[in-house]
Amino acid sequence: MNLPEGVSPEAAVMTVDMMSTGFHGVENANIQFGDTVVVIGIGPVGLMAVAGTKLKGAGRILAIGTRPNCVKVAKEYGATDIVSYKNGDTVKQILDMTGGGADCVIIAGGNQDTFRQAVDMTKPGGYISNINFFDMKDTLSMPAFSWGLGMADKTIRGGFCPGGARRIRKMLEIVKYGRVDTTKLITHRFNGFEKIEDAFHMMDEKPRDLIKPVVFVD
Fold first, then answer.
1. pLDDT in tens, 151-179
2. Chain-centre distance of CA 144, in angstroms?
3. How many Cβ atoms sit within 10 Å of the Cβ of residue 86?
4. Is the CB of residue 50 less than 8 Å from the CB of residue 44?
5. Domain segments of the chain: what residues?
């Protein structure tokens, strides 16, 4: 598949994983015009979820994260509020800020406790969309009260994002026409085949200023 005119290789490479996955979280969240949406985790996938949430027409977008560069990009992609766990319990912060909960919550990071928190911060009738991988040893559970004793009508969705040339072609159209600038995710650039290992080490170590690295191989 050839790249559309005006789309750089580094912009395109972000569509096949980060963008497609983040947007799948948005698709499963059933976002409607004017909705209040929470995105938990603003790494590269969460940032794409923020961008996709704005494109879907959400009114208020609350992004949960603390890394300064990620916070900056989240705001550029459309986050209206940034929530930090350093300022107290995130569920209480969301409930206080929204007056009772969000219409939709997208889980793009966290641990087994994040699942319960997402359900807690979703209002009755809302959607919880998961695009986060949990650990094999994790147990996902919640108190019955979190789901209104089973009567809160909260929908939970999760799964692998769809792939294939047709989907990526659509992602590229969004980039081509300036709806989303995926290069905002790229914080580190390497040149040369021999730098691939360095990039992988960086991904493993996750320095604080990292969002995504790319390697250019001539």
1. 999 999 998 888 899 999 999 999 999 99
2. 27
3. 7
4. no
5. 11-133+142-158
Q: What is the pLDDT of residues 84-135, one digit of tens each?
A: 999 999 999 999 999 999 999 999 999 999 999 999 999 999 999 999 999 9
Q: Check: CB of residue 122 under 8 Å from CB of residue 144.
A: no
Question: Are the C-beta atoms of 106 and 126 separated by less than 8 Å?
Answer: no
Count of C-beta atoms within a 10 Å radius of residue 123:
18
Q: In whole angstroms, what separates CA 185 from the centre of its chain?
A: 12
Can you give the pTM of this predicted structure? 0.95
Query: CATH homologous superfamily for 11-133+142-158?
Result: NAD(P)-binding Rossmann-like Domain (3.40.50.720)
